[in-house]
Write a structure and sequence with these properties.
The chain is elongated and about 50 Å long. The protein is an all-alpha fold. The longest helix is centred in the middle third of the chain and has 28 residues. The chain has 7 helices and no strands. Helix 4 packs antiparallel against helix 6. The N and C termini lie far apart (65 Å).
């Protein structure tokens, strides 16, 4: 009987740590692109160890990059839809908008470690510009505009510049990132870019 009580106590003691670990790790096991789509670059999963990121900032990086992954996957579906003729562009945009705004809201609710605000703000600004970009691109395509017209919507290039700025902030904030962390974080922002 005593062994059962001790086992129950040990299990109860471990549950909060397991629950905390799960709360700290939002990044999915499978990062495959949505069915029928391909990433535009060599996207690799965010390493669990996050070597080169200070321990106090790993939760923020994990959560932020899990949300960036959601945004870039939604962007992938949206851009591929816009480049296909005779699609339901409005329906695609409604799904994109719902998914990206939900990710943006979660990102804005996340506690931001000191010094990470510029990076977070750049990611949010890029998301906002992409929302505008895809809204205008959807209107163009619904009105009979071409795929080339989509490429000329200026908010896409503005979002691209902001994503480059976000990468500059990330890489200068964490110059000791391991090569795996460096490549993964870079390619998440690359895959999120329209261009």
């Amino acid at each position: 009987m005593r062994k059962i009580v001790l086992l129950a106590m040990a299990t109860a003691w471990m549950l909060p740590a397991c629950a905390q670990q799960k709360a700290d790790d939002w990044y999915p096991q499978n990062i495959g692109p949505p069915a029928g789509h391909k990433y535009p670059c060599a996207l690799t999963a965010l390493p669990k160890d996050l070597t080169g990121i200070p321990p106090a900032e790993r939760r923020f990086v994990n959560h932020t990059y899990s949300l960036i992954l959601k945004c870039l996957q939604a962007k992938l579906v949206m851009i591929d839809t816009l480049f296909q003729p005779n699609q339901s562009y409005k329906n695609a945009y409604a799904t994109y908008y719902r998914d990206v705004v939900a990710a943006r809201q979660r990102l804005m609710a996340e506690p931001v470690p000191a010094g990470c605000e510029p990076f977070r703000n750049s990611v949010v600004a890029a998301i906002d510009k992409q929302i505008q970009y895809f809204g205008k691109a959807t209107t163009l395509r619904q009105a009979g505009g071409s795929a080339q017209d989509v490429l000329n919507v200026p908010e896409g290039k503005v979002a691209s510049a902001i994503l480059q700025q976000a990468w500059s902030q990330m890489s200068s904030k964490y110059p000791s990132m391991s090569p795996a962390v460096h490549d993964s974080t870079y390619h998440h922002l690359c895959a999120m870019d329209v261009f």
